[in-house]
Design a protein that fits this description.
- The protein is an alpha+beta fold and 215 residues long.
- The protein has a single domain (4-207), classed as Ribonuclease Z/Hydroxyacylglutathione hydrolase-like (Metallo-beta-lactamase, Chain A, 4-Layer Sandwich), CATH 3.60.15.10.
- Helices cover 25% and strands 28% of the residues.
- It is globular, with a radius of gyration of 16 Å.
- The chain starts with a strand and ends in an 8-residue tail after the last helix.
């Protein structure tokens, strides 16, 4: 089994869970959703002593992708994800950043767009890609079967679900993404969301008030 380590690096005024995902045996990793505060991300990479080989994006919102262009430049690595439907968000990152006082933000063009059925590797770790629209039209989930672990962006949270009051948000689509894409992964799967604490699919299925109104 390829052991996976995950470290959260809180970034931006939104306290977004940028994460460092590591294949422990090989000492290589990936940065997921670098929303900003690139110096803090670089410091975390140096402290972990790993070689980052790519940047992964779950979706195109400013707090998840705002630092991606700068980090790519600093590390010299490709960006993979999200789905192409989030292109409009990635192109508008400078304008989005300006609304929240985030300066120096640049638009992002991923080196690889992702779609359902794709696979992303980090060292010997393998992640299956699931399209999970609703929060944004191009949101994707990264699922590692071996470690029963999923990177879910802002699709699902502990006790909550992603907001859908942004441009092209769709609450019904979001709930379908959770019930049709996340639930089948299994109740034991641990999810690392874009904000807040990790959660487990089974616990959210049973108790999340947005998914189970009777809870």
């Amino acid at each position: 089994m390829t052991k996976l380590q995950a470290f959260i690096i809180p970034v931006t005024p939104f306290q977004q869970n940028c994460s460092l995902i590591i294949d422990e045996a090989n000492g290589v990793g990936a940065i997921v959703d670098p929303g900003g505060d690139v110096p803090s991300i670089l410091e975390a990479i140096a402290k972990a002593g790993v070689k980052v080989e790519k940047i992964l994006l779950t979706h195109g919102h400013i707090d998840h992708a705002g630092g991606a262009a700068e980090l790519k430049e600093k590390l010299g690595v490709p960006i993979e994800g999200p789905h192409r439907e989030d292109l409009f968000l990635l192109e508008a990152l400078p304008e989005s950043g300006a609304k929240y006082g985030m300066t120096g933000v640049r638009p992002v063009t991923p080196d690889r767009w992702l779609k359902e059925g794709d696979t992303v590797t980090v060292g010997d770790l393998s992640f299956a890609i699931y399209e999970a629209p609703g929060h944004t039209p191009g949101s994707v989930v990264f699922f590692n079967e071996e470690n029963r672990f999923a990177l879910v962006g802002d699709v699902l949270f502990q006790g909550s679900v992603g907001r859908t009051d942004f441009p092209r948000g769709d609450h019904a689509a979001l709930i379908r993404s959770i019930t049709e894409k996340l639930y089948p992964l299994g109740d034991d799967v641990v999810c690392l969301p874009g904000h807040g604490a990790p959660c487990q699919i089974g616990e959210e299925r049973r108790t999340n008030p947005f998914l189970n109104p009777s809870s």
